């Protein structure tokens, strides 16, 4: 499941290549993956590609939107017609991508053609992801349940004016409201803060020096401030590195990278802490694994 930095990375990539292009064809290969009447978007220009939590939003002309959720195995690949290597790739990394299978392939559910001949493929092995046509009212309703945005504004978010960016006072209120809940659970509660999952909650708390099992009510003002700063620091760094699930794609074009290569604690049980050289531990908190350093986090 892609977390917020992965979605932000693909959104930035798609916004660059798709803004201003017109949708000239929509091919629906699996009906379950596409909700809406395609005639409503044919011939329409894409104004911008942006994001709210892990939803990808294509803003189209005349008040229409394409809302996309990649879920577990969804993947978006944009390909230029003139320069085949000019691509934007994001979402779930899989064998077919590594092998560079010709598109569309058997897991392609929907694809779009644009007026310059370029194409955007929506591949989804397990068919949990979807694309939906909505108008502004429906978009607002669908996104109304989501918590604060933990990442700072990007160009397009500012334009939309719909986002609620998490401030340190918001984090304080959340913690005061749920003093008995564990801080790791609070960070991952999508109705409170949208887009942080298991990887980044462990990373944020390592960065802040706070143990994941701490009750929210036990945190000092200084610790809350450190957690807040760490949310920004860790997520911004992850976006810069192209997130986590992108690391496999990057290896395809020869370059190394991705956030997991530089993770402080996530998936590093038994390995050396990068700060103190002690051993990283793993513990079940709720249903999920938390990774932490028992020396650097209190
Ligand atoms: Zn340590």
Provide a concise account of the structure shown.
It comes from Candidatus Berkelbacteria bacterium Licking1014_7. The chain is of the alpha+beta class. The protein has helices at residues 4-18, 95-98, 136-143, 155-160, 168-177, 183-188, 198-208, 221-240, 247-252, and strands at 23-28, 34-35, 46-52, 55-60, 64-69, 74-79, 87-91, 108-114, 119-124, 130-135, 281-285, 288-292.
Radius of gyration: 20 Å
Shape from CA axes?
globular
Quickly give the CATH architecture of the largest domain. Answer: Alpha-Beta Barrel
User: Which range does the strand content fall in?
Assistant: 15-25%
Description:
By secondary structure, this protein is α+β, with helices and mostly antiparallel strands. It is built from nine helices and twelve strands. It has two domains: 141 residues, MutM-like, N-terminal (N-terminal domain of MutM-like DNA repair proteins), CATH 3.20.190; 125 residues, Helicase, Ruva Protein, domain 3. The strands form three sheets. Strands 1-8-9-6-7 form a five-stranded antiparallel β-sheet, covered by helices on one side. Helix 1 crosses helix 8 and helix 7 crosses helix 8. The longest helix has 20 residues. The chain is globular. The protein binds zinc ion. The site of zinc ion (ZN) has 7 residues, from loops. InterPro entries: DNA_glyclase_Znf_dom_DNA_BS, FPG_cat, FPG_Glyclase, FPG_N, H2TH_FPG, Ribosomal_uS13-like_H2TH, Znf_DNA_glyclase/AP_lyase, Znf_FPG/IleRS.
């Amino acid at each position: 499941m892609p977390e917020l930095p992965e979605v932000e990375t693909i959104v930035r990539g798609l916004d660059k290549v798709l803004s201003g292009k017109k949708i000239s064809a929509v091919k629906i290969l699996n009906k379950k993956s596409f909700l809406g009447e395609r005639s409503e978007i044919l011939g329409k220009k894409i104004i911008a590609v942006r994001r709210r939590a892990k939803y990808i939003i294509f803003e189209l002309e005349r008040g229409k939107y394409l809302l996309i959720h990649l879920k577990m195995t969804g993947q978006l690949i944009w390909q230029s017609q003139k320069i085949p290597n000019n691509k934007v790739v994001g979402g779930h990394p899989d064998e077919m991508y590594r092998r560079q299978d010709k598109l569309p392939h058997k897991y392609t559910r929907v694809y779009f053609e644009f007026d310059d001949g370029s194409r955007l493929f929506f591949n989804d092995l397990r068919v949990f992801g979807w694309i939906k046509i909505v108008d502004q009212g429906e978009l607002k309703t669908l996104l109304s349940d989501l918590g604060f945005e933990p990442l700072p504004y990007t160009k397009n978010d500012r334009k939309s004016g719909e986002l609620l960016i998490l401030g340190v006072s918001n984090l304080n209120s959340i913690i005061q409201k749920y003093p008995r809940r564990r801080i790791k659970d609070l960070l991952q509660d999508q109705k409170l803060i949208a887009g942080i999952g298991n990887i980044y909650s462990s990373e944020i708390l390592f960065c802040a020096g706070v143990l994941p099992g701490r009750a929210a009510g036990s945190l000092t003002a200084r610790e809350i401030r450190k957690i807040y700063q760490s949310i920004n620091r860790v997520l911004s760094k992850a976006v810069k590195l192209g997130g986590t699930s992108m690391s496999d794609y990057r290896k395809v074009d020869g370059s190394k990278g991705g956030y997991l290569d530089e993770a402080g604690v996530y998936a590093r049980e038994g390995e050396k802490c990068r700060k103190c050289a002690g051993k990283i531990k793993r513990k079940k908190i709720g249903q999920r694994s938390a990774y932490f350093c028992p020396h650097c986090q209190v």
